[in-house]
Structure formats: C-alpha cells, structure tokens
Amino acid sequence: MAHVITQACCNDASCLSVCPVNCIHPSPDEPGFPTAEMLYIDPANCIDCGACVDECPVSAIKPDDKLDETNRHFLDLNAAYYTDHRPIRRKPVALPLPRPRRPAHIAVIGSGPSAFYAAEELLSQPGVSVDMFERLPTPYGLVRAGVAPDHQSTKGVTRMFAATAARRSFRYFLNVEVGRDITLDELTARYDAVLHASGAAHDRRLGIGGEDLPGSVSATRLVAWYNGHPDFASEQFDLSGETAVIVGNGNVALDVARILVSDPKSLAPTDIADHALAALRRSKVREVVVLGRRGIAEAAHTIGEFAALGNLRGVDIVIDPDDLKLTESTATALAEGTLDSMLAAKIRIAQAYSSRPITPGNRRILMRYLVAPEAIIGESTAAGISCVHNVYADGAKVAATARRSTIDTGLVIRAAGYRGGPIPGLPFDSGRCVVPNDEGRVSQTQGHYVAGWIKRGPTGGIGMNRVCGRETARTILADLASGQLRSPEIPCGDVIDLLKARGAHPIDADGWSRIDQHERSAGHRAGRPRVKIVDTAELEAAAHHPVHG
Length: 549
Prior knowledge:
The protein has helices at 51-55, 73-84, 113-123, 142-145, 158-165, 184-190, 219-226, 251-261, 264-267, 274-282, 303-308, 328-336, 341-354, 453-456, 462-482, 495-501, 509-526, 536-543, and strands spanning 3-5, 24-25, 40-41, 61-63, 104-109, 128-134, 170-174, 193-196, 202-203, 216-218, 243-247, 287-292, 315-318, 363-369, 371-377, 384-394, 397-408, 412-414, 418-419, 437-438, 441-442, 448-450. Helix 3 runs parallel beside helix 15 and helix 17 crosses helix 18. The strands form seven sheets. It has a six-stranded parallel sheet with strand order 10-18-11-12-14-13. The chain has 549 residues and is of the alpha/beta class. The model has no long low-confidence stretch (mean pLDDT 93).
C-alpha cells in the first residue's frame, strides 16, 4: 500500500520535511516546484509510514485503499509523474537563519499566506516580534475570501497561521488600514522593517468593447461576494438568465463555474455567505460557458481541479471534440508517448469529457478552447458576447480565423487573472504590476520589503507563497544581522493609542477569537463549519462580545 496526494493539495510542502525516504516531489529546491500544480508521492518508494498524513495541513494525503470513485484517478496521476520526471533524491539542506544583532520589531501589512509564512520565519529568531496590520476585521486573506466554499479542506491551512498568531511575540492589528488609520511613514518610524504582503487584489482587463456594461463583472468581485467579503456583500449579480459566460479558464474560472451550476443543497453545508446561497437558490443559470483563447494543452486550469469537475452531481462537462486541437508537435508527442505525463493527463481528461453522453435535464459546464472574446454586446446592459475562433498558425501561436459566433447571455464574468496595484511611497513596475525587489528587499527603499503576489506577480498558490514569504523573512533577518537597518526613531508601543486617537477600531487576537467563536457557534447550530459575518459593523461588535451558551 502507498499513500496518495489528492486534489486538496495546497503545495505548501510541509509533508516533505517528515518523509523519511524522500518520495514526495517536486521539492522547493527543484526547478519544477514554482509551476507544479500539486505534489506527488512516488508509489515505488513510499514505505507507508503515514508521517506525511499527519503533517499535511489540508488533509490531502490518503492511503491508496481509502480512495473512492471521486479521487481514485489520483493514484495513477501520482505514479505517472515519476514516469518522466527525475526528482532530486536527496534531502534539502536547511541553511541556518541569520541571527539579528538586537531585538527587532517588524510590521507586516497583510494577513494572507505569504504574510504568515514570513511571520513564522521571523518569529523563529529570538528577540524578533511581529505586528500584523490588516484592513479587514478578519485575517487570512484569500484563504478566507478566495478559496471556494466547497473546498473546505484547503482552508485547514489556517491552523498553521493560527499557531503563528498565538505566539507571545505576535500582535494583530485587524480592522486597520495603512494609509488611512496610520501612515506608512508612521510605521517606518516605529519599526525596524515594514513587510508589505498586500497581494494582487485587482482584476486584469480584457481590453474589449462593452467590458464596462452592466452584466459584465470581474471574477474577483463574484468570488469575494460568495465568500462573504464585507466590501462585496451588497453586490448584485444577474442570475436570471439560463447561460453565463466566463472569459478565462484558470482555477478561479472553474471555481466560479462550479459554484454557479452546483445544486445549492450541496453548498448549504459549507461556509458560503448566506446572501450568496439565497441568490443561488433563486438562480436560473443552467449552463456556464468557459472560454479559453488557446488550446487544451495551454489551458490555465490545473489537472486536479479539471478532473474534479466530473464529480459534480447533476452536471455535465461538455467539450466539443473539434475544440481539442493540438499543435503538430504536441499531437505527435502524445501519440508516441513522449509528451510530459502531466500535460498528457490533462489532455486525456478533456478527451474523456468530450466522449461522455449528455444527460437530459442536467446543468452543464461547456468548456470551449481556441475561442476568444471580441466584444461584449448590448446597449444598456450585456446581452451577449461575440467570439472569434482561433487556430494554431505558427508552432504554438494562435491566430484568429474568419469564423465568428455569438453567445446570448446577460452575465459575462471576466476571469483573466489578478494584478497588483501601486503602494503609495514604494516604487512600482507597471508592466509586471509588482513592487521591484531583490529577494523581497524593495529597490531603493531601505527598510521596506515585499512578499507574495505583490512581490512576484499573481502566480503560484499557497506553496509558492510559503517559499516566497520565507525568502523575504531571511532577507530581513540578514539585513538585521549585518546592521543595514537603522533602529526605529519611536518605540512601537504607542501604536494602539495612536490608532484610537485617529478613531480607528483595531481588533486584536482576542477580538478575532471572539469573531471566530461567533461564526463557528452559528455554524454549529446550522450544521456548517461557520456562518460568516459579512458586515464590518457587526464584525466589530462581535469582536467585543464573547459568545455565551
């Protein structure tokens, strides 16, 4: 018997440190790690010790005899990885962290994965303390407000973050907006270093006509809405039509498509926002069309998420076989068995979907490849989207054909990706939408550092954010050890008084604990993980009132 990593994998690589036979790959020091969709266990070398099961923060690792019909294909997928990937068969050597010369106080702006992984590394050194500033009344960034509600296991990674926050040298300043409640200059004067981990919260534009029509919405807003983000709780989306169109085919696009066509009864036991669940119960959407400009071989969605679509009850995954065109070189490699095993698996999953019969009465997700949007059409509101069909013209490049089509829809969801925005006071690369940096050290701005998507762009998930956050933490510690950072001008002990004098309502660890208890208590009564509070004023009130009973 061997153990198997399944779809829930967050790729944070915690399991690697406890594996006694080095059979989990790729590791963070291997070239394939930054682009890996998940990690894989080599069945030929796994000794079934189970150490990785206990270490995995999201319960993604299972014995092969415990797999059911929804995840049995991961057994073959784990094995297939090792047919043509040659992992490094050694344990990575952990270099000792630089030790600061003096006690240091670090301000971290943001509370998502990269922020917490950096904080964890910083706090491992004696004399270092961390104050974490977050604009929202709740922590965890996209783990709370971005991970789909039907992916509850992925949210289990927050247990690791909670352990970091429980350390005596850590303080929360939730419900505090830097730039409004406290200035960046005021933080700089009070802390040895300021780490910006604010992510990439903006959506990428499509650059087509009609993009700003009502009914054309960004996936970032829709995701935040159904996840209970306070800024988007009052949003309204038109779910009165039978067809919705999503432009883009990454994992966010698949998440949105899945939520729109899932039976609301299957979503009711999750932590989906109540207002979203009520709207989905009234929804008339029966079909979601997902558009990808390029072919299946270049599709942005991961194998695990793509394969999991086939497990949706009452939902057909529809692909026209004619849409599964490949470049000549890819087709040849696939036929000869020399194509990368993970890419071959993705193509074969798509081919299997294309041959499935359609069940009358089912909702459906229609995956379209080599189809790009030209314009969103309509007068006062979106009424449809016109598309152009592409072909491979020169190697892997795609070119438009004369073939055009129109999809009637009142809801177009733009899922072309996230992008970072400028941070006042820091340099900004408007082309890459990142803060220019060297291993997290902000260019030409002493004492300021970045981690996560604002550092490297919106690529990679929790695993890359762990590597990224730890790299920046090591840079900060190295600068402290070398004496490059000056001591703060003002002790940071006055921050609470300063915030209160500004009329801010900071929420500390006890306040977040009370919010958490309120939500979990309400969830327990409803048979759910939690019932999210989505109003800022209600969150502030919950932070100051213990749960009784």
